[in-house]
Amino acid sequence: MTNTSFTVAALYRFARLPHYEALREPLAELCCSLGIKGTLLLAAEGINGTVAGSAEAIEKLIARIEAEPELKGLELKYSHAGEMPFHRMKVKLKKEIVTMGVLEIDPLKSVGTYVAPKDWNGLISSSDTVVIDTRNDYEVAIGTFRDAIDPQTKTFREFPVWVEQNREQLEGKKIAMFCTGGIRCEKATAFVKGLGFDEVYHLKGGILKYLEEVSPEESRWDGECFVFDERVSVGHGLQEGVTELCRACRHPITPEERLSQYYREGVSCSHCYHERTDEDRARYAERHRQVMLAEQRGQKRHIGQ
């Protein structure tokens, strides 16, 4: 396998999936047999995940998932990685495939209107549209759409509270929401519509689809898009970005932030320096030393290191 042969598939589908527990073992066994790594989440409301492997392996996995009648028609985004972006394969059983914490929300009953990437600029450029980034603050920090509202949430569970507290600025407006791959917006738009708002829209396929299909010259996206694997971020054309992770706090850090006096590879950055002690940093320094030694032996670091 060459360094350019890893296909990354981000996938999800909301569905009535009462037998989701029975899918865990066969999917895990299939992935392991095909050399696929990443994470799949299964719940009674459907499937969600990101996995990587050879193009042939990913094709076989997608075929197996879509062999389940309820999961036919997955929302799929493909990209590529120069190195395997995951270190293990996990298939997890969950209460929700994306955790919002509002269990009565059902995207199969009511969601916002899908907007194709080619039509997104027109919608968000309108003066009567409020554009909301439904991702978490550390994701927004490295890139977002121009003039989008950042709710500054730490987790998706905080999003419903933010909406309730900011209803006034949404009244009488078109509400356009977006997220990385589209799945969070399925629930976010369902929640907002449940509050009585009618003109609710979301970007079909999420930021990833937009960056894949819209040229940099026409784009209203600034920065990079955070992804939950070793690539850390991607840009237009889904090319791997220049953002890295602080291995102490796991916050994404830009090249500019790596110039900070508080940045020390594997030890600290401006986001965590004042929240950690000298003892913490000494421990991180030793961990980083061990990671570097392991890399010299040909081992790869884990995203949490």
TrEMBL record:
Record keywords, A-Z: Oxidoreductase, tRNA processing
A Pfam entry, by short name: UPF0176_N
Alphabetized InterPro entries for the sequence: Rhodanese-like_dom (IPR001763), Rhodanese-like_dom_sf (IPR036873), TrhO (IPR020936), TRHO_N (IPR040503)
Annotated catalysed reactions: uridine(34) in tRNA + AH2 + O2 = 5-hydroxyuridine(34) in tRNA + A + H2O
Span of domain Rhodanese: 125-219
Single GO MF annotation: oxidoreductase activity, acting on paired donors, with incorporation or reduction of molecular oxygen
GO BP of this protein: tRNA modification
Enzyme Commission identifier(s): 1.14.-.-
HAMAP family: TrhO
Free-text function comment from the UniProt entry: Catalyzes oxygen-dependent 5-hydroxyuridine (ho5U) modification at position 34 in tRNAs.
PANTHER family, per database record: RHODANESE-LIKE DOMAIN-CONTAINING PROTEIN 7-RELATED, THIOSULFATE SULFURTRANSFERASE/RHODANESE-LIKE DOMAIN-CONTAINING PROTEIN 2
Family: Belongs to the TrhO family.
Protein name per the record: tRNA uridine(34) hydroxylase
